[in-house]
Amino acid sequence: MPEGPSIVILKDLIKELHLGKPEVLEVNGNAKNFDKDRLLHEKIADFKSWGKHFLICFKDFTVRIHFMLFGTYLINERKKTRLTLGLVFKKDELNFYTCKVDLLEGNVKEHYNWENDIMADEWNSKSAIKKLKEIPEALVCDVLLDQQIFSGVGNIIKNEVLYRIRVHPLTKIKNLTPAKLKALVTEARNYSFDFLKWKKENTLSKHWEVYSQKECPRKHSIEKKELGKTHRQTYYCEKCQKLYHKT
């Protein structure tokens, strides 16, 4: 599943094209939960990202693309996989595969709060801390995947952040010290921008310290279990990452 930084890369790639504010000349694909003809001859106002969502903004509505687990895209290329949505312009085309596509009416700002977006300039760390304190029984491995708190954080970032701050994934929010709670929020954003940098360099996996690893940098064995309410695969080091209890 693409994480927030990967969607930012897509947004930047498209904006680097000589698209300007292009008119949609052709719409293709098997997306069926809205009238694709509505996009015809409409001009794109902007491309945005919010967490794991890629947003194609028009004057009165927005097309939201969620890549789910296996979604992909191609710019000015096509492949044999069934097309979910394809947009053809005068000089370029955008093709999206194996993804979920929805149409949002009205201004996109009515649907999203960018203070939750870990990659956004509007990101609000104080708001994130406040929301975390409201769910004291939640596990840190779950809250990092909560898109209403850390929009854009996915499983890779979750695992790497918890190792970076040396916190066991089964620690409850209420048991974190104030310093560790702040570190959780701070490093979620810091690692996301590191992810972005390494992804652009095509070196992301070389920097993984626990994700898909057998040993941590200190040569301790890595545990691999499905943890928390999300049951997502979690990689962690029992020796490096402390399980905080109520004191």
Sequence-ordered SSE layout with sheet pairings:
Blueprint: H1 4-16, E1 26-28, E2 46-50, E3 53-57, E4 61-66, E5 72-75, E6 83-88, E7 93-97, E8 100-105, H2 125-133, H3 140-143, H4 155-164, H5 178-201, E9 223-227, E10 232-236
Antiparallel strand pairs: 1-6, 2-3, 3-4, 4-8, 5-7, 6-7, 9-10
Helix pairs in contact: 1-5, 4-5
Pfam families: H2TH
Domain Formamidopyrimidine-DNA glycosylase H2TH DNA-binding: 114-197
Family: Belongs to the FPG family.
Structure description:
This protein has two domains: 4-112, MutM-like, N-terminal (N-terminal domain of MutM-like DNA repair proteins, Alpha-Beta Barrel); 115-236, Orthogonal Bundle (Helicase, Ruva Protein, domain 3), CATH 1.10.8. The chain contains five helices and ten strands. It has helices at 4-16, 125-133, 140-143, 155-164, 178-201; strands spanning 26-28, 46-50, 53-57, 61-66, 72-75, 83-88, 93-97, 100-105, 223-227, 232-236. The protein has a four-stranded antiparallel sheet, with no helix packed on it. The chain has a four-stranded antiparallel sheet with strand order 2-3-4-8, with helices on one face. The protein has a two-stranded antiparallel ribbon with strand order 9-10. Strand 3 and strand 4 (61-66) form a beta hairpin. Helix 1 packs across helix 5 and helix 4 (155-164) crosses helix 5. The protein is elongated, with a radius of gyration of 20 Å. The mean pLDDT is 92.
Query: What's the architecture of the largest domain, going by CATH?
Result: Orthogonal Bundle
Query: What is the class of the largest domain in the CATH system?
Result: Mainly Alpha
Which structural category do the helix and sheet elements fall into?
alpha+beta
Largest sheet: 4 strands, antiparallel
Keywords: DNA damage, DNA repair, DNA-binding, Endonuclease, Glycosidase, Hydrolase, Lyase, Multifunctional enzyme, Nuclease
GO molecular function: damaged DNA binding; DNA-(apurinic or apyrimidinic site) endonuclease activity; lyase activity; oxidized purine nucleobase lesion DNA N-glycosylase activity; zinc ion binding
GO biological process, one term: base-excision repair
Domain Formamidopyrimidine-DNA glycosylase H2TH DNA-binding: 114-197
